[in-house]
Amino acid sequence: MAKLKRKLLKKVKNQKNLDMSKIKAKIEKELESTKTLKKELTIKDGKKYIKTGIPGFDALFERGIPRGSAILVAGGAGSGKTIFCLQTLAHHASNGKKCFYMSFEESNEKLKNHMKDFGWDAEKLIKSGKLKIQRYSPFEISRSVEAMLAKEKGELLIDIQPVVLPEGFKPDFIVLDSLTAVASAFIGREDSYRVYLEQLFSFFETMGSTSFLITETKQIPDIFSTTGVEEFLADGVFVFYNIKRGNCKESAIEVLKMRGEKHQKKIVAMRITNEGIVVYPEQEVFGGVREEK
Amino acid sequence: MVFVIYNVKKGERMQKFLKGKIDGKKIKEGNVVLLVTPAEKLIETNTELLKWYISKKKYNVVYVTVNKPFSTLIERFQREKIETSKIFIIDAISPSTTTTGNAIFIGSPKELTNISISTTSTIKKLKTAKILVFDSISTLLVYNKFETVKDFIHFISNKMKALKVTFVMTCIREMTDEKVIAELRAFVDEIIEIE
Known about the structure:
The complex is a heterodimer.
Chain A: H1 2-13, H2 20-40, E1 41-44, E2 47-50, E3 65-66, E4 70-75, H3 81-94, E5 99-103, H4 108-117, H5 122-127, E6 131-135, H6 138-152, E7 173-177, H7 179-184, H8 190-207, E8 210-216, H9 230-233, E9 236-245, E10 248-258, E11 268-273, E12 276-284
Parallel strand pairs in A: 4-8, 4-9, 5-6, 5-7, 7-8
Antiparallel strand pairs in A: 1-2, 2-3, 9-10, 10-11, 11-12
Helix pairs in contact in A: 6-8
Chain B: E1 2-5, H1 13-23, E2 32-37, H2 42-56, E3 60-65, H3 70-79, E4 87-91, E5 99-100, E6 103-105, H4 112-125, E7 130-135, H5 137-143, H6 146-163, E8 166-172, H7 178-184, E9 190-194
Parallel strand pairs in B: 1-9, 2-8, 2-9, 3-4, 3-7, 4-6, 7-8
Antiparallel strand pairs in B: 5-6
Helix pairs in contact in B: 1-2, 4-6
């Protein structure tokens, strides 16, 4: 901390027309962001753990999510998967991390507006270079798989990546929305989809990015992905429940699996508020999650 | 431990009873109380309870209703000259889902998890002396299975005990099976039976 302070002071001394109050404010701001980042990253036994910044959610883990994990975010329509991912990215991008949202469904504008609804300034984060949102077509991905298969057979010499990231942008966090949309481009070619999945998970692992892969399921799911293979390949599975009680709905969340980290093993209450998702780690869900007939 | 009161007259014996039990330290902070009352005396009993805690004890009351809507309750309390600014209502029966200054609307008595979250967070926000009144367990049983209601009561009771907040839940005798009342006895510290 002292070293950083000296470095910042040296940096501002070289500037002309010094305004001491502005300099002080700048130093304090930079030191504060360093403190925040330290809080975000817990290091234990050489392993690094990250927080999502979602109120109540991080308390479900002993230390946090192991950095570099690939996590399946599963749930039905309207259960809060996209909000969860956008909220996590907004949190980390605001703290100086590079975040990338790959959308196979919604347009960039829709996603930006979605963030705005919760008070997360997407435009500002994009301008700062910390957040990128890009729309992909599932069919482009499907075509690149053919090239990947050709590469495996030795028919192609160039390296093909399962996804093309923006040039010069190495994200710390990636959201892929959604694997279900990607799978739809492989109908009738399930084997190719499995090859693609393996390549994708291995690509994210090599990148060292922490990734969140959204999958669309039933409102109360029994399986958490299109083929069931995804949940075995993933390091973690977060399940979102949309519970129907008469004419009303309640939300709940569960950390089903998190490789390399102890976590709470029960379904807990969750709410989607005007400021985003809030998880209640001590609040059990009365009546369970199964839909009442 | 069962406390029995016979023929409580409006504004008299219920308050006298409460004076004896509360000032005599028999109902302690953090105790869970089951108030079993005949249907025709439910409103009167609740009103007397609020009058005692708000006017005499200067408590803040968090009042969860699955029985009468917010507007009806406020009208009634104002008529009885109860200081309504000291009552925070969690209304799970009105169709509205908006929030006003001193009320939260849940939407349905089936949303037990949301009722629990709102109740706990409201109690935590209130700084001064407070009490939780639940009106009523009998109505809650119309909308939910007994097993689920039992989980709910057990959870809330433990939360209130941890927060040292007295939790009074009302129960309408005619609407509630004797077996249910007998099972509820296991969760509570006191039972007040109005006859």
